[in-house]
Amino acid sequence: MSESASNVVYLVIAVIDFVIAGWKCLALLRDPTPTLSLITVNFVASGLVFAMAAPAGYRMLGELTGVPSFATLPVYIGILTCFSLLHLLTMLWDPRLRQSPAVLRRRVTVWSAAYLAAPAVMVVAFCSVDLSGPTDPLKFNTNFAGDPLIQVFLAVFLTTLACGTLNTYRRCRKLNPADPRFRHALRSFGTAMLFVFGYVVCSVPAITLAALGNHALDTVGVLGSTFGSIGALITSYGLSGAAVGAWLRERRDIKALQPLWDLVVEGVDEDLAFSVDSARSHRLAWNVGFNLHRRVIEILDGMRALRPWVSPLPAAAVYAAQEQEASRGTADGRPLSEQDLQAAATAAALRDAAQRLQAARLEAAAQGHAGHPQPPEGPQVALPGEDTPASDERQRLLRVAQALTAPLVTTALQVVRVQRSAAEVPEGQ
């Protein structure tokens, strides 16, 4: 990889890491946990590593310190920091180790000591060498491989990195956590560790040959940085891919719930909304989880406000229409599941209740009694699915929102209108 290409690639990765670090930091403020703390620190460290490893940052740091190759030290220590955090993270995710806290503490302590000792040795070896003079940011390993102390510096760095990445890879292969987010992260970690180990595989023969005075493999050593960059990108994906997917699903669900919100909140009582900007909150790019939870709560409040206007006729018409279609064999595609049929019944009941409320408001306004109209007399009718557990409400409301414009619901409402127009006394009187 050339210097210009390295600048672009490394700085882009640094920006990505800093953006994700900021995002994780916001999550950490809401839910401070040890694992989230490690993930946040990892992204900050990774961003700093790639900013300093980019040839432009490397040379700038060399000019500031007066030692052209000084950036090598914080970059290599930063690399060990990143992968030591990932290694410790996999230990914390190991259900077997969590069942034995003493074993977990002992392993974390041993590996933490190794990850602290290695940088200490590297600092002593690096600072004991005269590294004055110009250097190639991408070829430090091979340019200074002839110095015994730099050999110690590189040997400690590569040995620690190899042991850490291989141990992390082995642990990732063995673990199978129940949480799908952890499984996703561990699969990505395992792949990333192999790419990072590829950096070691490329560097060792190049350094060994350069120490003997032969620089034929210097380009292979530079190629190792490409493997390291790919490994870092895969690691970033593993730590944030599942969260990004969940974020995108939450934004999608907010948009999908918008028609239902318009029907039972905006069309019933705007005071049920959290704020005047509630109708536009799905456009916000931050705190999407809060916006989705708020949207669900507002919809449930709106459905409760509509309950006095709910009639049993629409839901009954939906079930009757479905039975007729099933008996005639005219239903499009496969039959509706019980959950989808219940959602259609709920959608029909809500659309009918909203229409009855609006009609009562118009009638009250015509009589000079603007405000909240008197609901129909008689016992209130329960909506289908009101006994749904709180953990399943989101999916239930998404099905109801999708069913609002379903042909089955439209047909059922037409049947109800015909029934009411044929009745001698309006319903509820």
Structure notes:
- With 429 residues, the protein is mainly alpha-helical.
- The chain has 15 helices and no strands.
- The radius of gyration is 32 Å and the shape is elongated.
- 37% of the residues are buried.
- The model has no long low-confidence stretch (mean pLDDT 85).
Sheet with most strands? none
Overall spatial form: elongated
Low-pLDDT parts are none
Q: Strand-residue fraction?
A: under 5%
Span between N and C termini? 82 Å
Helix vs. strand class: mainly alpha
Q: Estimate percent helicity.
A: over 70%
H and E order? HHHHHHHHHHHHHHH
| Number of E-state strands | 0
- Kindly provide the radius of gyration, computed on alpha-carbon positions and rounded to a whole number of angstroms: 32 Å
Number of separate helices: 15
Structure in a nutshell:
With 429 residues, the protein is an all-alpha fold.
Topology:
Layout: H1 3-30, H2 34-53, H3 55-65, H4 72-93, H5 95-98, H6 101-127, H7 140-143, H8 148-174, H9 180-211, H10 218-266, H11 288-306, H12 312-328, H13 338-366, H14 393-403, H15 407-422
